């Protein structure tokens, strides 16, 4: 069975100043999602599920989904703040989404096969989809608790404009041991890669694996997530900015020994738009990829 690609596209885009998911950044108006879907199809994925918010469903269907529906099977699910387990009610002043792993939970009714999770507004590169599709397709039927993630080389994810936050991965025998969030990674005066903490800089090897939210799961992950989300809500339901992130659940499962996460290596270069100032650099990079023939003039 071909794996499914699950695209997280419900983000509010507040820092960027609009819906990044619908922004045409390619030379012919392509969105970053277009490149991910194109690469996923080329790499062997068999279905795409999108999680979005209900308030931009019409725009999404007209501008985005219409391009794919005759190329690959697609489905849409919705994330909302009131989509909570029985016994929990969303606080009336809650406006912030519940986070990436809550978005993943919304896919449970639509996904019954191994699946990959990506952000809609990140460019991951063809090879990253190839290694993930190969991993998920090779899983024996009925596999559970054998997960994976694409570990990007930190040097392939940095910005020349300033420091970035990355989940730095510690591995052993190719499996994930932990993910440590480093909030200030960048180049120092000698153009060496370092992270800054407490006023000091610590060197990082260029090929240190980091998580860019490209995960591979089997459907049993939904069950683990439901249990973890209940614990999260019992603790943080009334904390206005609390979020239920994928690494929260993954870390729990790895540390308890319940699950393993294989770290897949890739030479793909990641880039994305976090702030509006990043937009032109992404436009230039995508135009270059078209000129080099990596992507055709018309992808869909």
Sum this structure up briefly.
The chain is built from seven helices and 13 strands. With 300 residues, it is α/β, with parallel strands linked by helices.
Polypeptide structure, described:
The protein has 300 residues and is an alpha/beta fold. It has one domain (4-150, 211-291): Spore Coat Polysaccharide Biosynthesis Protein SpsA, Chain A. The chain is built from 7 helices and 13 strands. The chain has helices at residues 32-43, 57-68, 100-105, 126-137, 220-236, 246-256, 279-291, and strands at 4-8, 47-52, 74-78, 115-119, 122-123, 146-153, 164-172, 175-187, 193-197, 200-203, 209-217, 260-265, 271-272. Strands 1, 2, 3, 4, 6, 7, 8, 9, 10, 11 and 12 form an 11-stranded mixed β-sheet that branches. The radius of gyration is 19 Å and the shape is globular. Mean pLDDT is 92; it is low at 12-17.
Q: What's the helix and strand layout?
A:
Layout: E1 4-8, H1 32-43, E2 47-52, H2 57-68, E3 74-78, H3 100-105, E4 115-119, E5 122-123, H4 126-137, E6 146-153, E7 164-172, E8 175-187, E9 193-197, E10 200-203, E11 209-217, H5 220-236, H6 246-256, E12 260-265, E13 271-272, H7 279-291
Parallel strand pairs: 1-2, 1-4, 2-3, 6-12
Antiparallel strand pairs: 4-11, 5-13, 6-11, 7-8, 7-11, 8-9, 9-10
Question: Keywords for this structure?
Answer:
alpha/beta, two-stranded antiparallel sheet, 300 residues, 11-stranded mixed beta sheet, Spore Coat Polysaccharide Biosynthesis Protein SpsA, Chain A, globular
Please give the largest β-sheet. 11 strands, mixed
CATH topology: Spore Coat Polysaccharide Biosynthesis Protein SpsA, Chain A
Order of helices and strands: EHEHEHEEHEEEEEEHHEEH
CA-atom Rg in angstroms: 19 Å
Count of DSSP E strands? 13
* Overall 3D shape: globular
**pLDDT average, as an integer?**
92
Count of distinct structural domains: 1
* The CATH superfamily title: Spore Coat Polysaccharide Biosynthesis Protein SpsA, Chain A
CATH architecture: Alpha-Beta Complex
- The amount of beta strand, in percent, is 25-35%
- Total of DSSP H or I helical runs spanning 4+ residues: 7
State the secondary-structure class.
alpha/beta
Distance separating the two termini: 24 Å
